[in-house]
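Quick start: read one record
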Amino acid sequence: MTLICYKKHMTTTPYRSYLLRLWLEPNDPPEWRAMLESPSTGERHGFATLKALFVFLEQETERLEGETHINRSTNQH
């Protein structure tokens, strides 16, 4: 496992922080549920499946990458 020093990057690049809650619903078959909560805004996102959680995280990171690319392009002019 590779550990990344995140403190220096947090002040220079966009990032998101979330509190992740996972629980197992006792359905037949049992199903994992998830919730992300932003500690800065209190905004919550609930997910009925782990796949839905991963899709959300992929979309968020792609959006942040797009914002970073746009900001860098704007600052270069």
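Residues 43 and 63 are 17 Å apart (CA to CA).
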